[in-house]
Amino acid sequence: MQPPIRYPNMPQLLLKARDSLLQHFRPILNHYGVTEQQWRIMRALNEWQMLEPRELCDICQISSPSMSGILARMEETGWLARSKFEGDQRRRKVHLSVAGSELLVEMGRLIDLQYENLEAAYGKQVFEDMRLALEAFVALDTLPVAPAILR
Question: Cys staple from 91: which of 75, 85, 123, 127, with CB 3.0 to 4.6 Å?
């Protein structure tokens, strides 16, 4: 009997791959008392310097209600700061504080070392191929893909 769905469950496989990869970094995050969501925010702010919370939600794949609490806790710990936009006092922008930047640099050394260990174990080309494949999948939402026809 043929299975009802022939294709592998790609979203489930991606979640498992994400979890498998993160297991190599969780000890670093735990050592510094940083959650995975906080680390994603720190990485995004490191790359873009200053973002609005709604932009962080999109980049980090964190819901808006969750983001509010995470940002508040990060501000309380002194890892980030918020400021108002000139001309629009309702809007806020978020950036790493000095302490947050210093923490990111300190953790970044270990994160980079762990990536080097993973590349040594699996091969640098495997990581490059995976990165390119994932970027291609992320780009799929910009490509016109015909929807399945519902009956």
Answer: 85
Poorest-confidence range of 42-51, 81-90, 95-104, 113-122? 81-90
Tens digits of per-residue pLDDT, 97-141? 999 999 999 999 999 999 999 999 999 999 899 999 999 988 887
Model pTM greater than 0.85? Answer: yes
HEC readout, the chain: CCCCCCCCCHHHHHHHHHHHHHCCCHHHHHHHCCCHHHHHHHHHHHHHCEECHHHHHHHHCCCHHHHHHHHHHHHHHCCEEEEEECCEEEEEEEEECHHHHHHHHHHHHHHHHHHHHHHHHHCHHHHHHHHHHHHHHHHHHHCCCCCCCCC
Separation of alpha carbons 36 and 117, rounded Å: 20
Q: In sequence order, what are the residues at sequence separation of 6 or more whose Cβ sits closer than 8 angstroms to the Cβ of residue 49? A: 95, 96
Q: In what order do the strands lie in the sheet with 80-85?
A: 50-51, 88-96, 80-85
Cα separation, 114 vs 117, whole angstroms: 5
